[in-house]
Each structure stands twice: as C-alpha cells, then as structure tokens.
Amino acid sequence: MTTTHQRTAYTAKQGWATGLYLFAAVMLLLTGLLEVLRGIMGIAGDDVFATSPDHVFRFDLTGWSWIHLALGVLAALVAVALFRSERWARVAGVAVAAFVVVASFLSLPYAPLWSIVVIALSGFVIWALCVVRRGR
C-alpha cells in the first residue's frame, strides 16, 4: 500500500511540475507577444503612448520601443526553447522575464496599465520557473 501511495504522490507532483513548466512557457510566450506589439506600436506611432515630462526615467519612446521589441522576440524564442525542454531555457526564461519587468517598470509612464499587466505576467513566469524542480 505504501508503494502505491508513493507512486501516486510522485505522479501528482510530477503533474504539478509539468503543469507549472508549461504555464511558464505559455506565459513567457504571451509576454513576448505583448512586448513585440508594444515595440511595434511605439515604433510605428509615438502618439499611441502617454508622455510625462516630469518622469525621472525620461528616454526616447522610440528607443524604448526597440528595447521592448527585442525583449519580446527574445522572450518568444526562450518560450519555444521551454516547450522543447532545453536545459538552459529555465535560467534564460527567468533572466528574460526579469529584464522585461525592469523595462516595463522604467516605461511605466508611457503605458501604465499595459506595463502593470506585463510585469504581472513576467512575475508569474519567474515564479513558475523557479518553483519547478530540476528533474522536470
């Protein structure tokens, strides 16, 4: 009876780990897509975003848009690697999500709601990739 219980517990833990891993991959892909869209919108037309002349981190909106576009493409590529179960993808996913959080925070005055959504998604990605055990 103990063996069956241990096998069931292991299977349940393995199921949760797989679910969290796939959740992280999907959320990172979604975050990448949102970042690509944000970058394209900023490059195509600066009038889409709000401007705040009194913001401490004032940068050119077009420059920020290129940064978001690059981070979005990178996030999508890492998400694909997560789907393929590449070993390096978990660490890269956490790093890319952390960079997305920083970039979204610094560009908060230009698109406050969008930035908060992307920060939350990236936080979920970091959490899910850090919670899953190494043995996946």
Number of helices: 4
**Computed Rg:** 18 Å
- Can you tell me the residue ranges where pLDDT is under 50 for at least 5 consecutive residues? none
Task: Encode the helix/strand succession as letters.
Answer: HHHH
Please describe the biggest sheet, giving its number of strands, its sense, and whether it closes into a barrel. Answer: none
Secondary structure: helix percent: over 70%
Describe the global form.
Answer: elongated
> On the 0-100 scale, what is the average pLDDT?
83
Q: What structural class is derived from the secondary structure elements?
A: mainly alpha
Number of strands: 0
Number of self-contained structural domains = 1
Query: In whole angstroms, how far apart are the ends?
Result: 26 Å
Beta fraction: under 5%
Features:
136 residues, mainly alpha
Task: Tell me briefly what this model is.
The chain contains 4 helices and no strands.
What does it look like?
- With 136 residues, the protein is mainly alpha-helical.
- The chain has helices at 2-44, 61-83, 89-106, 112-131.
- It is elongated.
- The model has no long low-confidence stretch (mean pLDDT 83).
Draw up the topology in text:
Blueprint: H1 2-44, H2 61-83, H3 89-106, H4 112-131
